[in-house]
Each structure stands twice: as C-alpha cells, then as structure tokens.
From TrEMBL:
InterPro entries the record matches: GlmU-like (IPR050065), NTP_transferase_dom (IPR005835), Nucleotide-diphossugar_trans (IPR029044)
Protein name: Glucose-1-phosphate adenylyltransferase
Domain of life: Bacteria
E.C. numbers: 2.7.7.27
Domain Nucleotidyl transferase, residue spans: 34-240
Major enzyme class: transferase
Record keywords: Nucleotidyltransferase, Transferase
GO molecular function: glucose-1-phosphate adenylyltransferase activity
C-alpha cells in the first residue's frame, strides 16, 4: 500500500465565481466563493474549509504524505495547512505544496493533467512510487480513499454508481461514464453520454458507472503519458481522463474501476454551498483529529 495522496486545488474555480442570486448564503460566504479556491470555502464547523474534512478522511484511510497542488495565487492554503513548501505537520499528516504555473500566453491553468505533471516534476520521487489523486472540492469517504490504497491494481479509479449520486438528474446526466469489462477493467470513458447508448455502458451489476476524479496511479508508467498528454479539443485543457485512457491503450488490463455506491459532496458552484454545509453538519458534526483510525 502507498501513502501518497495528491490533491488538485490549482484550478480557476470559474463556475464557483459566476454570479448567483441566493438567499441562503451570507455576504461572507459569497465573498469566499468569489475569492477562494473551492476547497478553502468555509462550509464546516467554525467556518473550517471543506479540505479539512477531506484531509481527515485521508488520515483515516492511512495516507501519510499529502501533496496539495495550488495555483500561483494560492498562499491562503499555507495559512491553513503550513507555511513551508514541504513537510508541514498537520495533525500527523505531512503536507507539501506544488504550484501549478500558468503557461505563457494563457489566462487560466492548463487542466488537471498539467497540474499533476507539474507536481511530479516538483516532487520527482512520485515518479518511482504509487500515489492517489483526487479533487479538493469533493468529499470522498475514508472507505473510498482506503480502497485506492489497498487495491493491487497498478492503476485504479473509484467507479461510482450513478444512481447513488444525490444530485439533480440534469447534472448527473452530464457526468462522463466509464465502460468496464466483466472484471471491472477500464475500457473507455465516454463524455456527454446520450440516453440511447447508456444500456451498452452498464457494468456486470447493471450499473452506470461514473468517475469523480479519485485515482490511483503507478508513477513510473504514468509519467510519459502525463508529459505527452494532448490538449482536449473542446475545453482547451490537458485532462487526467485522457492520460488514463492513453495509459490503458498502452498497458491493457492495468486499470480497475473499484465499484462504490455512495454520494460524493461537491463544491462546484455557489448553489452547492448550502447543501455541503447541511451534509457536513449531519455526518461530520465534530472532527476529532486525535481519535484512533
């Protein structure tokens, strides 16, 4: 089992910053949504960020080394999780920061694959190890994160039952879906799926499976695909699903979809803030960092 978790937190948060008229948010919450990285928005007890809860689950899952990829203006992360670039102690977790720099000629980051590539360039030890990767604005369960640590598959992702997601149908219908073989090995990822072809993408349990960007990677074999990731023709970004599929093409039967059936709270837009606050109050009323895992 590996001990490394890379957290993607360097995005532009453009959907979160869009104008929204909501009567269930305070002026302070709206200001944070407009100014902070999504994982730092204070949705928890005493205004603590969502990222606290993700780190708590990561610790419960057994991770030791956390690499948070921040943007060039990401100094606020250091106020919460440690002032040094490397090896800050946060409740027994070692927190290090990687910076996703924006390439010359662009006004926003170059995507999740570029973020991870810049991180492994800054921490090359990851290229000889296994590591997990996830978003900073999703709250993955400790059980899901532990499954990524424990799987013997060289690469893996959490393969979520689409029907278990507590999101509006319109939102769920936009999720990319995974095509798996009878052994849950990844064959393909389909973006913008249409209803008429969903049947052929059901897995052996009859479920439609989606990825929420929770991965395990073999750093040694992934590096070349990260480095050579093509730009997505529509979104003009380099994306991790592309890297994963290119890796599968070169190394078939090395990427398993680990089936999970549970909701994953998500902070994408201002409309999500109240829902995430309610979820945390119900399921995480108190974070006890000193409890035994």
């Amino acid at each position: 089992m590996h001990n490394n978790l890379v957290i993607l937190a360097g995005g532009a948060s453009s959907r979160m910053k869009k104008e929204a008229v909501l009567d269930n948010l305070s002026p302070e919450e709206i200001a944070q949504a407009n100014e902070r990285s999504k994982g730092l928005i204070g949705v928890g007890a005493s205004g603590r960020p969502l990222l606290d809860y993700l780190l708590w689950n990561a610790k419960k899952a057994g991770y030791k080394n956390i690499y948070i990829i921040i943007g060039e203006q990401g100094e606020l992360f250091k106020e919460f999780y440690g002032s040094q670039m490397k090896n800050n102690d946060f409740h027994g977790l070692s927190i290090s920061f990687a910076v996703q720099y924006i390439p010359e000629g662009r006004i926003k980051p170059f995507g999740t694959a570029d973020a991870l590539f810049q991180a492994v360039e800054q921490y090359p030890e990851l290229n000889s190890q296994f590591y997990s990767v996830c978003n900073s604005d999703n709250l993955y369960s400790a059980e899901a994160l532990r499954a990524l640590r424990e799987t013997e598959s060289p690469n893996a992702f959490i393969s979520y039952d689409r029907d278990a997601m507590d999101f509006p149908l319109e939102r769920i219908s936009r999720f990319a879906i995974a095509k798996l073989d009878q052994n849950n090995q990844l064959l393909d990822i389909l973006e913008k799926p249409s209803e008429d072809i969903l049947e052929e993408y059901k897995d052996s349990e009859g479920k439609i499976r989606v990825s929420m960007n929770a991965f395990k990677f073999n750093g040694k074999t992934l590096y070349t695909h990260l480095k050579n990731c093509p730009v997505h023709p529509e979104r003009d970004e380099k994306e991790l699903p592309t890297v994963l599929l290119n890796s599968v093409k070169e190394n078939p039967q090395t990427t398993v979809g680990i089936p999970f059936s549970e909701h994953v709270p998500d902070l994408t837009a201002k409309e999500d803030i109240a829902d995430v606050k309610t979820y945390l109050a119900k399921y995480y009323p108190d974070l006890n960092w000193n409890s035994k895992n």
